Amino acid sequence: MAGAGLQDVIASDSKICLLDGVKGRLVYRGYDVADLVEHCGFEEVAHLLWTGALPKAAELAELKRKLAAHRPLSGAMHHLLGDLPASAPPMSLLRTCVSAMGLTDPRAESSDPAVNLEMAQEMTAQIASIVASIHRLRRGHGPVQPEPGLSHAANFLYMLSGRRPDERAARIFDGCLILHAEHEFNASTFAARVIAATLSDIYSAITGAIGALRGPLHGGANQKVMLMLQEIGQPSRAADHVRRLLAAKQKVMGFGHRVYKTEDPRATFLRRWSQELGEKLGQPQWFEISQAVERVMLEEKKIHCNVDFYSASVYHLLGIPTDLFTPVFAASRAAGWTAHVLEQYADNRLIRPLAHYVGPVDLKVQSAK
Ligand code: COA
After folding, report:
1. What CATH number corresponds to the domain at position 105?
2. Alpha carbon nearest to ligand 1 atom 13, residue
3. Ligand 1 center to residue 255 CA distance, Å?
4. Which atom in ligand 1 lies closest to the alpha carbon of residue 249?
5. Could you write out the DSSP letters of every residue in 30-51?
């Protein structure tokens, strides 16, 4: 019988992502993620995930053109956003909006791989615009129209704040999008594949993935990390705070991983950017508190931080509101989710495991009549 939570179970072959939890290595389609972060932009990585190859110059230009064309939201989407309760959690709003996108798309039932790739690209562009617009609307600000000349990363920050980010901030955010774009059979990606494997449509698969990402044991952890850093308030209080949580048998958010037994390679970049941005913006406290928390977790539990830990302070320093951290994660992971849906459709078999039944048998009905 499989261990609880399907731990260590290999569910299927995949050519998209290699995750070596012992060596702390993450590889997208053959390329180490560190190499991709150093040398590529999010658009190139998305192309790589979808098609299996890095784009040639003309392909990259074409993809950028398409993403830019897909970024403006339709009138129907603006109306929907206006009608939904602005106080609802942004992840729930995003889930509803992505589901709604599928209502009017006549291509949704298509089984043509080229059409599904088009929808994957469109959803990746639109999800970022939806997240930015959710924030603008609830603040009573009008939505900001996308700026076609900007990268996916820079444009998102622009649509969120109405200000063009400086080059370094945009590059760091671009790196964040790459680091969050894909991660093998994590819970939300697996959820997307289970849905796609029934030959349901790509909108249903991504709606389900958003629902799975929302939970605090998965993508919801990054928001909780920022709330914890704010509650701790200063580095000298970090050790006591963490020890109290551990003594109460509570999880410290942003630590631990089902697969990594060593440092999460994504955390290495995020730690560096948290320090850099903190120093640059005169807010070193978030990095310092994070370091203090990390030290205690290693001393007391030998548990490493995961992607959600330092991404919290990085996103905060980039001006992203805390309750948008998980939707921003979804905006990056849209590329990986949709790549997995395409791969599932290309060689599909229904995903249908067995349960190990541990309930009673042979009960006889005693009629109450
Ligand atoms: N804080 C404190 N203890 C933790 C911990 C954390 N963040 N993560 C794991 N542990 C401990 C557990 O208490 C358990 O200890 P025990 O064996 O003494 O009971 C052990 O490590 C195994 O944890 P478990 O929850 O069974 O591992 P898992 O593989 O099922 O869960 C996570 C993996 C990611 C869900 C888990 O580490 C977690 O809840 N982390 C916090 C949430 C988070 O950051 N999620 C984002 C993941 S990218």
Report:
1. 1.10.580.10
2. 251
3. 7
4. 13
5. TEEHHHHHHH--HHHHHHHHHH
Instruction: Tell me if 253 CB under 6 Å of ligand 1.
Output: yes
In short, whether 5's Cβ falls inside 6 Å of ligand 1 is: yes
How many Å apart are CA 193 and CA 212, to the nearest integer?
12
The answer to whether position 9 is within a domain reads no
Q: Are residues 154 and 225 located together in one domain of the fold?
A: no
The catalytic residues are 218, 257, 308
Residues 309 and 329 in one domain: no
Ligand 1 pocket check for 44: Cβ under 6 Å: no
Q: Which residues contact 166 (CB under 8 A, 6 or more apart)?
A: none
Q: Kindly compute the dihedral angle of the four CA atoms of residues 11, 13, 16, 17, in this order, to the nearest 10 degrees.
A: 60
CA distance 297 to 305: 8
Element (H, E) at 120: helix 113-138
| Block mean pLDDT (10 aa), the chain, length 369 | 86 97 97 98 98 98 98 96 95 98 94 97 98 94 94 98 97 98 98 98 98 95 97 97 97 96 96 98 98 97 97 98 97 98 98 95 92
Ligand 1 pocket, 257 CB below 6 A? yes
Is residue 22 within 8 A of residue 15, CB to CB? The reply is no
Cα 263 to ligand 1 centroid, rounded to whole Å: 14
Please state the pTM of the whole predicted model.
0.96
Three-state DSSP state, 298: helix
